[in-house]
Amino acid sequence: MLPSYEELSAWLPDLLSGLSISLQVTVLSLLIGIPFGLLLALGVLAKSRLTKILALFLVEVGRGAPALVLLQFIYFGLPTSGLTLGSFTAAVIALAWNTGAYTSEIIRASLQSIPHGQREAAVAIGLNRLDALRYVLLPQGLRVALPALLAFSILIFQGTSLCFTIALPELVSRAYEIGSNTFRYFPALLAAGVLYASISIPAALLVSHVEKRAGSYAQR
Amino acid sequence: MDGAVLHLGSGKPTMTEDDALAAKRMPSAKGRARKPLIKLDKLSKHYGNHTVLDGIDLEVMPGEVLAIIGPSGSGKSTLLRCINYLEPPDGGHVTIGDISLNAAAPAGRSELSTLRRSVGMVFQSFNLFPHMTVLRNVSLAQERVLGRSRRNADDRSMQLLKRVGLADKAQQYPGRCSGGQQQRIAIARALALDPEVMLFDEPTSALDPELGLEVLAVMRELAETGMTMIVVTHEMSFAENVSDTVMIMADGKIIEKGPSADVMRNPQQERTKRFLRAVHDR
Amino acid sequence: MSTADVFAILRGLPWTVALTLGAFLAGAVLGMPLVAARQSRILPLRIVAMVLIQIVRGIPPILWLFIIFFGLGMSVFPISPFNAALAGLGLIAAANMAEIYRGALASIHFGQWEASSALNLGRWSTLTDVVAPQAFRVALPSAASYLIGLMKETAVASTIGVSELAFQGNQLSQLTFRGLEVFALVGMFYILLSLPVAWLSRVADSYLQAKVAR
Fold first, then answer.
1. Across chain A, how many H-helices and E-strands are there?
2. How far is CA A50 from CA A60, A90, B43, B222, in A?
3. pLDDT, mean of residues A48-55
4. Over residues C159-184, mean pLDDT
5. End-to-end distance of chain A based on CA atoms, in angstroms?
6. 20 to 30 A Cα–Cα from B202, which one of B2, B65, C26, C138?
7. What residue stretches are annotated with the ABC transmembrane type-1 domain (chain A) (predicted)?
């Protein structure tokens, strides 16, 4: 049931290489997705009807469709209309879209949770809408949003496992490959599970720590 | 009280913005000016079926200190917030100096901006920006709205913080200051734009009586330098001793208005008498 | 896209619904003893529950499904794709529901416990008669939101051969080479499916809000 020492040392290079790809996709998706989420949040709150509808559409689809379907849509679907993308690129695009959609809601909720008086004070001292956002609302909103954004990042990391279905050589696909070669499915998949947990669990603990500290900040 | 304010003027050798403004205000001292600085014409506001402001007419002279008192729900705060268009009125005119806004014609962004530059507002819950230092709180609007350089803005901010007795708190964050200190900083922040009139929305209601005294002392000094002030308050001694005029509001209307000593000691209206009696009995 | 195609995809709908409801039910029920263990005064029990929850949530759903279907299914005992998916998703749901319950219980004002204690209600009675009903109301929005999330998670079952919506979509796309429309349609079905749940949740929430005296 458990991998032997020899098996583990044989498998580890492959598994770690897969983990590295998972992490790369995670980081890129977040780096692109979170700013995208900010744009979408502002887009949803915009005055222009066109902007609002476009932003809402991207958010509702990015959030409402399963990540798996988004991945398949971008990797398998787009080629039928001429645009072919490699699995890594497709993975990043799909997950960045997913990230953007969720984080736009997180950011929007955080902005709304800022005490109303802050907005009033910004207005009263004459700051225009953009300055009020930039200097008063966003700095506070992002602090509030941080725990949720971190928690979501962990989910995206786990979400890279879905990229198995679009032929990305990430961690799960490596473990599966080892399993299908050696018929030692359980140990190989277990090893992959341990690798995932070794990152997810400390990250989750970090998130609860940040949550507690953010809570004390919000007290003021 | 930690060094809360007790001097008039800035005592600087050269003529600065500060001096020039003080000079502008001093001569048109309390109540002796020709044209009203603030004029409200038939100002009204509704929330659904509920009338919060019922056609208010009001004139405030430059240098005048007006205290507005009255029971909760009388529309006092709403009136104040309509003056700087924090809440747009549903009917009537708001005139401050040369700017006049008509509720019927929605105000443009630049008009609102000009209006708000001449009005400073102090809130009951201070509303300081918790994520920046005290100094930055006071400097931010100067840089972004008035276009001052960071250096000039910070210098002016330090002047103002000195004036309210909190220069030593400049590098601290608001969260580390007491309520009274935060409110004094809020006053400095509002003064930073060199407004023509200062609005105070129950500035001491969220403070312990002791801390409230610090703030009232600053407000008193401000009044003595000739600033036009409209103060919604429950502090009867401020209304009686510091303000020039007192106005009683109830149910969205002005019940009584006149020189503070007269209204507070010798009220004419029954409603006023009732209110003052209730306050006194506490 | 012909109607035949649409119906081909919709063949997967009953499976999606069955998986979603089955896993959610399993999670809602199993989450209760799990959170009880998590909050228990017996330290070893608390630790075991905490570790279990962290591990279950720390491993991606697709991997859990693989471990159960390929890992256990190949070596220990044969298991159908549907049952493997149900077991895996149910396990994950239990861990997540336990956390939702924990959050809801924690949000109940401490005064409720104190008052019950003063009235000499035992710990069990306090839980079932006083705290749990209130916690239920608090948990409802999070649980509804999780239900919608779970429904989207069921798409991973397609990877181990459960013929639900995503699986049907994949098949159709390979058959017709019209991936763009097919996957767009599949995505749309999932979005439409979430609407009644979101609506029901809002209705239930406002109904329950009305009953609470404030």
1. 9, 0
2. 15, 27, 36, 49
3. 92
4. 90
5. 53
6. B2
7. 15-207
Six-digit token string for C144: 């509804």
Report the C-alpha gap between C34 and C98 in whole angstroms.
6
pLDDT at position B17, please? Answer: 47
DSSP element (H, E) containing B201: strand B197-201
Please tell me the distance from the alpha carbon of residue A165 to that of residue C62, in angstroms, as a whole number.
Answer: 10
Q: Pick C11-164's CATH classification: 1.10.760.10, 2.120.10.70, 1.10.3720.10, 1.10.443.10.
A: 1.10.3720.10
Whether residues B141 and A220 touch (CB distance < 8 A) is answered with no
More confident position, A152 or B269: A152
> For residues C189 and A15, what is the distance between their CA atoms, to the nearest angstrom?
35
Instruction: Read off the pTM.
Output: 0.81
Question: Domain residue spans in chain C?
Answer: 11-164
pLDDT < 50 regions, chain B: 1-17, 20-31
Question: Which pair of structure tokens corresponds to residue C87?
Answer: 């077991």
3-state secondary structure of B43: strand
Residue C72: both structure tokens together: 């256990």
ipTM value of the model?
0.88
Rounded Cα distance between C24 and C93, Å, is 6
Kind of pairing between the strands at B228-232 and B65-69: parallel
Q: Which residues of B touch A120 (CB under 8 A)?
A: 86, 123, 127
CB of A182 less than 8 A from some CB of C: no
The count of other CB atoms within 10 Å of the CB of residue A217 is 14
Query: What is the distance in angstroms between the CA of the first residue and the CA of the last residue of chain B?
Result: 26
Contacts of B among chains (3+ CB pairs under 8 A):
A
**pLDDT at C127 > cutoff 80:** no
Whether residues A66 and C152 touch (CB distance < 8 A) is answered with: yes
**How many whole angstroms separate alpha carbon A49 and alpha carbon A33?**
23
CA distance A41 to A102: 10
* CA A113/CA A118 separation, integer angstroms: 11
Task: Tokens 């959050």: give the residue.
Answer: C103
Q: Which residue of A has its CA nearest to B82?
A: A124
C-alpha torsion sign, points B94, B99, B102, B103: negative
Burial B236-250 (b: 16+ CB within 10 A, else e): eebbeebbbbbbbbb
Which one, of C45, B109, B207, lies nearest residue A127 by Cα? B109
